[in-house]
Amino acid sequence: MSYIESLQRMGVSEQTASFCFDAEERLAERFREVDRIQDENQWKVLSAMQEHMVSERHLEGSTGYGIVDDGRDTLEAVYAEVFGAEDALVRAQMISGTHALTTALFGCLRPGDEVLFATGAPYDTLQGVVGIRPEVGSLAEFGVTYRIVELKQNGLPDIDAVCASISKKTRMVAIQRSKGYAFRHSLSVEEIGQIIAAVRAVQPEVIVMVDNCYGEFVQTIEPGQVGADLTVGSLIKNPGAGLAPVGGYIAGRKDLIERCAAWLNAPGIGKEGGPSLNINRTFYQGLFLAPQVAANAVKTAMLAAEVFHSLGFAVSPAADETHYDIVEAIALGAPERVLAFCRGIQAAAPVDSYATPEPFDMPGYDCQVIMAAGAFISGASIELSADAPMVPPYTVYFQGGLTYSHGKYGVMKALQALVDQHLVTLP
Ligand SMILES: *Cc1c(COP(=O)(O)O)cnc(C)c1O
Q1: Residue minimizing CA distance to atom 13 of ligand 1
Q2: Is 119 in the pocket of ligand 1 (CB under 6 A)?
Q3: How far apart are the CA of 237 and the centre of ligand 1, in A?
Q4: Ligand 1 centre and the CA of 421: distance in Å?
């Protein structure tokens, strides 16, 4: 059976396939750049594992209090090295990115403190944590206040406004690397470094926390290398490579990591406690594969950008722009197109491919949301997935792809669904 025939057998027409192959050809040089970034990151992770003498015994876990757990401690040392930090917490007891960010916020902030969001309102789930959206147990209940500095019209950080908003109360400046669910530019690590340098010049003591979700291994440096005090992310995204079934990480200054551990576990127990159970092997293996998985996801995002841009849709990042995270925003402009796109992605999944995603009322959203994902790990958006709030301009946020072959097939299936319903015409 030929290459095209196997795609046809899986519901992609010859015309759709060749349209996507043409787009892929135009990306050849850019894919080579992604390969080079993958190589550098792979070697960085490998050398950290070698330097910390990771050995077979580290792959086993502990139970109960987990007071003696060399595997966990060594993994944390490896993470610290990779993320340019003094120390790290890498735990299954932190559910995901939201929980890791919550741990960092509650670990470091005290009543009367203010947290300044330097890149617009934080990611949706964090709005409840901070109390921007009222929730039981939020930081607001503890007398911690917040301030938000919006991005400029052009999507870049408003560094002057950030500096002008720093007061004596400002204990933390929070920076979000990825666009999350906003049609905006995702920050490069260099841009994050510029914000940090400017903030430090005004208030050297302030804690800078970077929400690194979706950004890991997309560039060859991480926020710790440009001065972030805390770098925080999710193990069900890039650094878990689709293998980690749960987890979050915080990498940063030793004294702050200790505070985060005291909040996560108990004061006095801190980082010494916390059993790794049977998860160490998976976390090591996930980190080892993460540079390749992140690169596959970036290539998938680039292909989607090229394909949908050449059909006339606005995409962010633009097809010829550098990608600073794994998310591609595609402004489809109509609800039927969003439905078709998401259903195409679902139909391309290894799990639940027969399901039909429908828009639903999700807690914390003021509109209906549709989510397509057929993932091995529930909610793991490093796996091929698409989400969209069902409001104008009907933008779908598309990300992940553990393998590029799967990502490519997903893009083709999404396009095919649009073509089949006459919502898009191929030239
Ligand atoms: C996904 C995401 C989070 C939350 O991470 P979860 O693992 O889904 O809890 C926070 N911030 C950003 C920018 C994200 O993309």
Answers
A1: 180
A2: no
A3: 8
A4: 33
> Candidates 103, 119, 178: which one to mutate for ligand 1, based on the most atoms within 8 Å of Cβ?
178
Put simply, whether the predicted model's pTM sits higher than 0.70 gets the answer yes
Are the C-beta atoms of residues 236 and 247 closer than 8 Å to each other? yes
Collapse the DSSP code of 161 into the 3-class scheme (helix H, G, I; strand E, B; otherwise coil) and give the result: helix
Is any atom of ligand 1 closer than 6 Å to the C-beta of 214? yes
Q: Taking a C-beta distance cutoff of 8 angstroms, is the pair 228, 209 a contact?
A: yes
Query: Can you tell me which atom of ligand 1 is nearest the CA of 327?
Result: 15
- In CATH, the architecture of 3-41+291-420 is Alpha-Beta Complex (3.90)
Separation of CA 247 and ligand 1 centre (Å) = 12
Task: Give residue 180's pLDDT band: very low, low, confident or very high (50, 70, 90).
Answer: confident
191 Cβ inside 6 Å of ligand 1: no
pLDDT digits (tens, 9 = 90+) for 335-371: 999 999 999 999 999 999 999 999 999 876 778 999 9
* Residues ≥6 apart with Cβ < 8 Å to 422: none
Question: 335 preceded by cis ω (within 30°)?
Answer: no
Look at the block and give the residue holding tokens 């991480």.
Answer: 222
Ligand 1 centre and the CA of 381: distance in Å? 9
Averaged pLDDT score across all residues of the chain = 96
Q: What is the CATH number of domain 60-287?
A: 3.40.640.10
What DSSP string runs through 317-328?
Answer: S-TTSPPSSS-E
Pocket lining: 79 vs ligand 1, CB cutoff 6 Å: no
pLDDT at 1: 62
Three-state secondary-structure class, residue 112 = coil
Rg for the chain (alpha carbons), in Å? 21
d(CA 123, CA 260): 20
Cα separation, 49 vs 142, whole angstroms = 40
Residue 169 backbone phi and psi in degrees, to 5: -75, -20
Closest CA to 296 of 319, 326, 261, 269: 326
Helix (DSSP H) and strand (DSSP E) numbers for the chain: 12, 13
From-to residues of CATH 3.40.640.10 in the chain = 60-287
From-to residues of CATH 3.90.1150.60 in the chain: 3-41+291-420
| Of the candidates 410, 393, 406, the residue with the CA atom closest to the CA atom of residue 337 | 393
